[in-house]
C-alpha cells in the first residue's frame, strides 16, 4: 500500500474531492523518506540559482527506496508534491530525483535529465538491483 489513509480522509474522498493540503499531509505522514528527499531537493533549488537540484544518495534501505518509488510512480502523489513545493520533479533510477523550476521544463538541462542518454549515463553496476 502506498499511503496510510485515515478513516476521516477516506470518508472525505468517498464524499467528493479532497483538498490538496489534506492529501499532501497524508503523503508526508505515509512516506516520510520520500517526503524528506523531495523536500530537501526543493529547498536546495529554492536556495540556489541553479536550474535544478537532485538527490544522488541511495536510500539507506529497501523500505526507503520503496517509499521513493511509490511516491514518484503515482501521478497523484507526484502531482501533489509538485504543486505543494512549486517544482517539476524528474526521476531516473531508484533514487535520483530532481526538482526543476517549472519554467525550466523546456530547458536543455531538463531535457538532458529526462533523456534516454541521461538515463543510460546514470546507470552503474551498483544500481542494477535497485
Fold blueprint:
Elements: H1 7-15, H2 20-30, H3 32-46, E1 52-54, H4 62-73, H5 75-85, E2 88-91, E3 97-100, H6 108-113, H7 116-121
Antiparallel strand pairs: 1-3, 2-3
Pfam family, one: KH_NucS_shadow
Keywords summarizing the entry:
mainly alpha, globular, single chain, three-stranded antiparallel sheet
- Number of H/I helices: 7
Q: In terms of structural class, how would the helical and strand content be classed?
A: mainly alpha
* Percent helix range: 40-55%
Q: Characterize the main sheet.
A: 3 strands, antiparallel
Q: How widely separated are the two ends?
A: 19 Å
SS strand fraction: 5-15%
> What low-confidence regions span 5 or more consecutive residues with pLDDT below 50?
none
In one word, what is the shape? globular
Number of domains: 1
Pfam family, one: KH_NucS_shadow
